[in-house]
Amino acid sequence: MIRTRQEGFSLPEVVIILVILGILIAAAQIPIANDIQLRRRASLHSAVRDLANWIELVRTSAAQGRVCTVTISNGTVAAGGVVASVAPADCGANHTLDAEVASQTGPLAVSRNPATTIVFTTEGGAQPAGSVSVEGFNAVEVRLSSTTANRRACLAISNGTGSLRFGSVNSSTGTCAYSGPF
């Protein structure tokens, strides 16, 4: 009997190769998922920093002899939507702060407690239309969160001086935790 040589792979060999490929693909997914979460977190923190920098420009402009009124949005802001605006338009670098980062994290949810407007005086101080106690100081608290990434960050603007403080939302209590003094 003459045996002919068969070419190709046997069924057990194919199964073993598929199992190994499956393990490799699953292992690759973990770093990719972590990378996406880190980028979303960084994007949200970037949005909070953008808001703080924009407010600081408005405050600096006010200290140069203008009275500037900042209005902070409340609700969901899509990419390109307005997070905050200032009047008159010559206060600060831009009349509005747009949600550029929202395209990376999904729409931003913006909330402020309690003020809708903050007036920056010619001395550079802040006079919000209402305030809450933030670790013993009267301040306006602005919260930004990603509606798709479950990430939240806070910015507190103190009454009087207009000083800024960054914080993060405690997921179990829902309150903002801040580090460092005003």
Tags for this entry?
7-stranded antiparallel sheet; 12 strands; minor pseudopilin epsh fold; 5-stranded antiparallel sheet; single chain; alpha+beta; 182 residues
The radius of gyration computed from the alpha-carbon positions, rounded to a whole number of angstroms, is 25 Å
Number of helical elements? 2
Name the beta content range: 25-35%
CATH class: Alpha Beta
Q: What gap, in angstroms, lies between the N and C termini?
A: 92 Å
What's the story with the biggest beta sheet? 7 strands, antiparallel
What is the third-level CATH name, the topology? minor pseudopilin epsh fold
- Helical coverage, percent range: 25-40%
Low-pLDDT sequence parts: none
Multimeric status of the protein: single chain
Just name the CATH architecture.
3-Layer(bab) Sandwich
* SSE series: HEEEEHEEEEEEEE
Number of strands: 12
Number of domains as seen in the coordinates: 1
Shape: elongated
Average pLDDT taken over every residue:
78
What does this structure look like?
The chain has 182 residues and is of the alpha+beta class. The protein has one domain (11-178): minor pseudopilin epsh fold (3-Layer(bab) Sandwich). Helices cover 31% and strands 33% of the residues. The chain contains 2 helices and 12 strands. The chain has helices at 11-63, 102-105; strands at 68-72, 75-77, 82-87, 96-98, 108-113, 117-120, 126-128, 132-134, 137-146, 151-158, 164-169, 176-178. It is elongated and about 100 Å long.
Describe how the helices and strands are arranged:
Elements: H1 11-63, E1 68-72, E2 75-77, E3 82-87, E4 96-98, H2 102-105, E5 108-113, E6 117-120, E7 126-128, E8 132-134, E9 137-146, E10 151-158, E11 164-169, E12 176-178
Antiparallel strand pairs: 1-3, 1-6, 2-5, 3-4, 5-9, 6-7, 8-9, 9-10, 10-11, 11-12
